[in-house]
Amino acid sequence: MDAEIALQHRAQVEEFRRRHRTGLVTLVFTDLVGSTRLKQLLGDREGVALIQHHHALVREILGQFTEAQEISTAGDSFFIVFVKPSDAARFALQLQARLRTLPQTAATILDRIGIHIGEVVIEEREGAAKPRDLYGVQVDIAARVMSLADGDQILLTRAAFDNARQVLKGEELGGVKELQWLNYGPYVLNPKS
User: Fold this and answer.
1) How far apart are CA 126 and CA 133, in angstroms?
2) Helix (H) or strand (E) holding 55
3) b/e string for 88-110 if b means 16 or more Cβ within 10 A?
4) Does residue 158 sit within a domain?
5) Is 15 in a helix, a strand, or coil?
6) Structural domain includes residue 39
7) Where are the beta strands (DSSP E) in the chain?
8) Which helix (H) or strand (E) holds 167?
9) Domain holding 147: CATH number?
10) pLDDT < 70 regions, the chain
């Protein structure tokens, strides 16, 4: 009987491994700051239209990065993965530059963005090119980094910061005017809170 249980357990583990793998990726979370206030100020219809315009803009810019994927969207937020931290930073800079060019009405659209590099568990979709979801503490850390950002701010963890700054040094980034790399020093993040 023990051999039968062991075989069942092995089959379960193999099935899990088949559907889930691990990988080192660059994680990006974006969040539209004050979206509830926007809807209160403009009304649901106009507020939602503005959020949908924001989503279209995010997807338009994301389409320029062949090695990036939108993992999920929840309300006014995006969870995106990139292969390279420099591409994630380039995407974030281009998105914020484009948001700044939108007509200034009673409602200003500001995104806050967090970027982190980490190894995650990737849940595969059977027969699909896009993963179903990503899991692990690194995902939680990326979300926490984003939550620390203000509107129109991009925060990166150390490895993502160092890599992106080195790769993008001296590069012309369309629409991005003055680029400043600021080191805020060490932070201790509790991914559970």
Assistant:
1) 12
2) helix 44-62
3) bbbbbbbbbbbbeeeeeeebebb
4) yes
5) helix
6) yes
7) 20-33, 68-74, 77-82, 110-123, 133-135, 153-156
8) helix 158-168
9) 3.30.70.1230
10) 1, 13-20, 104-107, 127-131, 189-193
Q: How many domains does the chain have?
A: 1
Domain ranges, residue 56? 18-168
Q: How far apart are CA 91 and CA 12, in angstroms?
A: 39
- Judged by DSSP in three states, 6 sits in helix
The model's pLDDT over 63-113, given as tens digits with 9 standing for 90+, comes to 999 999 999 998 889 999 999 999 999 999 999 999 888 776 656 788 999
DSSP 107: S
Q: Which amino acid is at 47?
A: G
Q: How far apart are the C-alpha atoms of 181 and 176, rounded to whole Å? A: 13
Q: Are 141 and 62 in contact (CB under 8 A)?
A: no
pLDDT, position 131: 65
pLDDT for position 107: 65
In a domain, 49, yes or no: yes
The verdict on pTM exceeding 0.70 is yes
Structure tokens at 37: 């206030």
Q: Is residue 184 part of a domain?
A: no
* DSSP structure class, residue 64: T
Q: What is the pLDDT of residue 81?
A: 96
CB-CB neighbours of 77 under 10 Å: 16
Contact 28, 84 (CB under 8 A): no
